């Protein structure tokens, strides 16, 4: 297999190698370049904030979205461009290889273009006229990928009056901007929807995620030509915030599928293969070699770490050009299925995503979650908690997983490693909920519910939609929806759980207080969700409450005043760039 792989990685004469320095991730994605893309973007953002019961447009199956996006990514290339490039000339130059369907520019320590051709042959045509760079002091490891570097033959030939490529920021708003947007909102419902709109993955960011997987697939394909690299987790389950990691699944099942083909006569041909003692060891060996490949030959892949002894072995790396922190796993099909399940829950009712985004941002603002692994609650656990809470409403806003299983037909049947992962995949066949509760009420009730949940004896279970006795003594027990013997929050310590409970109670209390004492919109004071997202509000209020010095309304007023002035000072990071305290 390795020998076959060398076909793509064959060493050509030594050429210059671009230095690969691990840089902090900073993304400023640009706008898509076509009218069609603009229309789609409008549709996406407006569609995402309508209520589920109002939105009657048929929704695509998860598998259909994945198929379309993957196919689109295969026709797409990534180009590092000179800084001052004329967009018109750039497009004209590339159009020699075929018509372009869509393009956009973004900045990430340099200018990049994502260009989607109408036909895949155009990519091959572009590759056929592309050379491997040569320099005097360094050597290039040649790899004919879809990640290019465009240089100007003579930079002075670009007339300065030519309009340059337009880049617009696609990163989430600064704390200051978010604070303003939330304060200007008309209601708490409006605040939650605003936050969703500002933090959800944009069309361009989603395209870049699928493209990055497709580029990694090309590299892994050097060893395993029929492999597929699929995104999973928050990049595709509709709960991803701008800046979230890119979880990838190296799917080698397509390779095995050929054995299912019918053969004539009494013969059956099999590949000679190496055997190893267990599936886990096979996974570790495959990831080890792909990790080496990414490290040595993967254009733009830096900081490669092989974390092979984890429960789920993985290769972690930064994809420099896209700025994504990537986790590559294999043999992890169940996680792909949970992503599909979450996608369905997210699409069933628009209140789901709005509530999940706000809870995720709230948890991040109070350091309940972290990008560093540890004893913290994860975003995945928080999402399951919101789903569970919505299953517990009366009438329920979301159905249980067991109910989704009863709606499944023969084609939906799915057993993975002995686990029954069957549920209905066509979400248009699921009846919308009759529950009409507002987001404001749901937010308040979420904090009430989990502020008083019997975590010491009960487990959270979205399969049945009701609490169950905890089967083990972990402080927080959330049953994995498919591998039901697993607790997805086994890592969470008692003190982190206590912090979550305290903050939930405080947040419920703040919202209750504001019911009676809401500042007028003209006062430009933080209120509603804005109050909850400002770090340390709850802690300070908690202290103030304990001291019982002043009436609640006055304490809140004073505190919010001080936060308002300090938030303006704290809205830039050490690089002088705007930061968002609610980012992962
Ligand atoms: N997963 C799981 N069990 C866990 C942790 C993760 O099944 N204990 C699966 C889930 O499908 C999850 C995916 O792995 O969505 C990716 O995990 P992670 O990156 O931690 O969560 P995300 O949902 O992607 O959220 P984030 O935005 O924080 O990355
Ligand atoms: Mg993730």
Show the helix and strand layout.
Elements: H1 2-9, E1 28-32, H2 35-47, H3 62-74, E2 76-81, H4 87-95, E3 100-107, E4 111-117, H5 121-128, E5 147-149, H6 175-184, H7 188-199, H8 203-220, E6 228-232, E7 246-251, H9 253-257, H10 279-297, E8 301-307, E9 314-319, E10 324-330, H11 333-348, H12 350-365, H13 379-391, H14 401-406, E11 415-416, E12 419-420, H15 439-451, E13 458-459, E14 468-469, H16 494-516, H17 529-533, H18 537-547, H19 552-569
Parallel strand pairs: 2-5, 7-10
Antiparallel strand pairs: 1-3, 2-4, 3-4, 6-7, 8-9, 9-10, 11-12, 13-14
Helix pairs in contact: 3-8, 6-7, 7-12, 11-12, 12-13, 15-16, 16-18, 18-19
The protein binds cytidine-5'-triphosphate (CTP) and magnesium ion (MG).
The site of cytidine-5'-triphosphate has 17 residues, from helix 11 and helix 13.
Which descriptors would you attach to this protein?
584 residues, alpha+beta, five-stranded mixed sheet, 19 helices, 14 strands, disordered N terminus, disordered C terminus, binds cytidine-5'-triphosphate, binds magnesium ion
Report on this structure.
The chain is an alpha+beta fold and 584 residues long. Helices cover 40% and strands 12% of the residues. It contains 19 helices and 14 strands. The chain has helices at 2-9, 35-47, 62-74, 87-95, 121-128, 175-184, 188-199, 203-220, 253-257, 279-297, 333-348, 350-365, 379-391, 401-406, 439-451, 494-516, 529-533, 537-547, 552-569, and strands spanning 28-32, 76-81, 100-107, 111-117, 147-149, 228-232, 246-251, 301-307, 314-319, 324-330, 415-416, 419-420, 458-459, 468-469. It has a 5-stranded mixed β-sheet, sandwiched between helices. The longest helix has 23 residues, at 494-516. The radius of gyration is 26 Å and the shape is globular. Mean pLDDT is 83; it is low at 1-53, 541-553 and 562-584. Pfam families: MTPAP-like_central, PAP_assoc, RL. This is Poly(A) RNA polymerase, mitochondrial.
């Amino acid at each position: 297999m390795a020998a076959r792989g060398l076909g793509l990685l064959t060493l050509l004469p030594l050429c210059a190698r671009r230095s690969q320095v691990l840089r902090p991730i900073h993304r400023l994605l640009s706008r898509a370049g076509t009218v069609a893309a603009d229309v789609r973007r409008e549709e996406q953002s407006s569609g995402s904030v309508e209520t589920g019961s109002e939105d009657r447009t048929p929704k695509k199956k998860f598998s259909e979205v994945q198929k379309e996006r993957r196919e689109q990514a295969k026709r797409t290339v990534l180009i590092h461009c000179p800084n001052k490039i004329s967009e018109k000339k750039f497009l004209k130059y590339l159009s020699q290889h075929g018509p372009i369907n869509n393009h956009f520019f973004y900045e990430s320590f340099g200018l990049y273009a994502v260009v989607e051709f109408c036909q895949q042959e155009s990519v091959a045509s572009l590759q056929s006229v592309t050379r491997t760079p040569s320099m005097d002091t360094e050597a290039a490891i040649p790899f004919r990928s879809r990640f290019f570097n465009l240089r100007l033959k003579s930079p002075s030939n670009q007339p300065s009056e030519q309009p340059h490529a337009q880049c617009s920021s696609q990163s989430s708003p600064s704390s200051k901007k978010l604070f303003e947007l939330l304060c200007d909102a008309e209601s708490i419902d409006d605040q939650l929807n605003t936050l969703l709109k500002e933090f959800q993955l944009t069309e361009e960011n989603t395209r870049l995620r699928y493209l990055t997987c497709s580029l990694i697939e090309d590299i892994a394909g050097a060893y395993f030509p029929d492999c597929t690299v699929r995104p999973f987790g928050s990049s595709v389950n509709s709960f991803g915030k701008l800046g979230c990691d890119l979880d990838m699944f190296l799917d080698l099942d397509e390779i095995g599928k050929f054995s299912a083909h019918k053969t004539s006569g009494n013969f059956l041909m099999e590949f000679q293969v190496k055997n190893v003692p267990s599936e886990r060891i096979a996974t570790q060996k495959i990831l080890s070699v792909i990790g080496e490949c990414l490290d040595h030959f993967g254009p733009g892949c830096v900081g490669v770490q092989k974390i092979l002894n984890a429960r789920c072995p993985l290769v972690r790396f930064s994809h420099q050009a896209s700025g994504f922190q990537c986790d590559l796993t294999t043999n992890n099909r169940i996680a792909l299925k949970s992503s599909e399940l979450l996608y369905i829950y997210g699409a069933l009712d628009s209140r789901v995503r709005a509530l999940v985004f706000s809870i995720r941002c709230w948890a991040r603002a109070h350091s309940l979650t972290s990008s560093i692994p540890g004893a913290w609650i994860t975003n995945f656990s928080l999402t399951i908690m919101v789903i569970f809470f919505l299953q517990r409403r009366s009438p329920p806003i979301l159905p249980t997983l067991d109910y989704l299983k009863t709606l499944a037909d023969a084609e939906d049947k799915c057993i993975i490693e002995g686990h029954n992962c069957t549920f209905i995949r066509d979400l248009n066949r699921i009846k919308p909920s009759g529950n009409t509760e507002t987001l404001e009420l749901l937010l308040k009730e979420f904090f009430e519910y989990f502020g008083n949940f019997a975590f010491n004896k009960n487990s959270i279970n979205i399969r049945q939609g009701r609490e169950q006795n905890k089967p083990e003594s972990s402080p927080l027990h959330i049953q994995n929806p498919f591998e039901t013997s697993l607790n997805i929050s086994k890592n969470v310590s008692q003190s982190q759980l206590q912090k979550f409970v305290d903050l939930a109670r405080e947040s419920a209390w703040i919202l209750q207080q504001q019911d009676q004492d809401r500042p007028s919109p003209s006062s430009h004071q933080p209120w509603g969700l804005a109050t909850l997202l400002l770090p340390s509000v709850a802690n300070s209020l908690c202290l103030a409450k304990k001291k019982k010095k002043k009436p609640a309304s006055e304490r809140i007023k004073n505190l919010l005043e001080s936060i308002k002035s300090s938030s303006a000072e704290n809205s830039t990071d050490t690089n002088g760039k705007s930061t968002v305290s609610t980012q992962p």
